[in-house]
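Note to self: keep these together.
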Amino acid sequence: MSDQPDPTPYPLDHLAELAGAKGQGEAPALVLRDAVLNHDGLRQRVDWLAGWLAREVPVKGARVASWAAKGELTCLLPLAAARAGLVHVPINPLLKRAQVAHILADSGAKLLMGTPSRLKSLEAGDVPKDCPRLEEQAALDAAFEAALSHGPSAADPDELCGILYTSGSTGRPKGVMLSHANLWLGAVSVANYLKMEAGDVTLAVLPLSFDYGQNQLFSTWYAGGSVVPLDFLFPRDVAKACAKHGVTTLAAVPPLWVQLTEIEWAEASASLRRLTNSGGALTVDLVEDLRAIFPQADLYPMYGLTEAFRSTYLDPTLVETHPTSMGTAIPFAEIMVINDEGEVAAPDEEGELVHCGPLVAQGYWQDPERTAERFKPAPKQSAYGGTAVWSGDRVKRAGNGLLYFVGRRDAMIKSAGNRISPQEIEDAAIATDLVAEAVALGIPDERLGHAVHLVVRGSSDEGEQTKLPKLLLKELPNFMQPQAIHWREAMPLNPNGKIDRTALYRELAGEGA
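Structure:
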């Protein structure tokens, strides 16, 4: 890729046109279980799916949701919905009906496509009355049979084209509003600094409802490469897929990297050129393990937040000498460190990471209050100006320009690469009527980053207590399940009469004991 990426944003669906325009239309673009689509085939199917969507949901800007594992539908929909003038809402396939019902209602979805088993799990009232449900294969069959051409979009790049739902530190999941420009420039930026090329093969193991996961598609197609979607059961499935498909690019989160360093790779790693990490920091030991197992591959530690996609990356040449650094700003991102006085922090002075520039999202869907808390005017010293994301993360910038993470201000739990709202877990526990009070905490864990611990005040009857994990298993996805539940007769209180979360954290984390 060029050293100077093109800053001009285009409608997102134009990603399907690039390879053909370069005469590379016959090169593979999407490797499915039973077929391989080349870039010409990708463009054609995106066009047909867009034409069908425009007929089925003829209201510009309407939201269409998908709730399915990785496959042709979930890979094509982001581009097809954008081409049809609609807004795609990808729902994490690991979520259960309560979270899905909230997302459907909150987004005002006008169409839901998903796997049969997931659709059948929804109960009366979970889906808006004006939102038809359609099995994913039926949707694809109908679209390809109709073969309605729609043509590349002429949308304003600033128009909304996607909503990604992410948990906050309090409350239910909130929808991050992403424009064509946000997603297009994110693809350009990543393809540029990862030095991706037309022959690259990306193994897409991360959820496509996750900004880091979705970009696996966009950055690869921007470069003219191919994507192999994979829903794996065991870490060895990842190694087998790398060997089978000659994978060159593998993105993961720290807990998965830990698992991948514990298996035998042999020749399966031979084709890998680059490894990328986000969703949590790599430990020094893990960096050493990855470099030992994949010596020929460049390692890219990265930091990001859904509200601004990606903020920083560490150049692979600096990983060995600065393994704990977040690196520097990615292309199109201006990363500032602002101290408590509102000034640019001095070298090695702690401050808040503020992300400015065209990757900043448009706020939270129908949530002006929470939008105002995170999306604020850029610092006066910003070269971009406009709206910035004030991350709440505390960082330092060293004298050499490299950034270092200090800590988080909010109570967000990051476990196995997932951002988890404590309040969602607490609300689910209280809704069982087995507990009166509940506090969910993230306790440091070597494998998960943070393990979810739930402290509750409720019945002292052991029979009643055994019901709680079973009920939570029904209501919460697996990654939100508490690793441990601690029953208390009383909760510690702070001077204001509120539950003292800090005291509980210190006790469970073994601090100050």
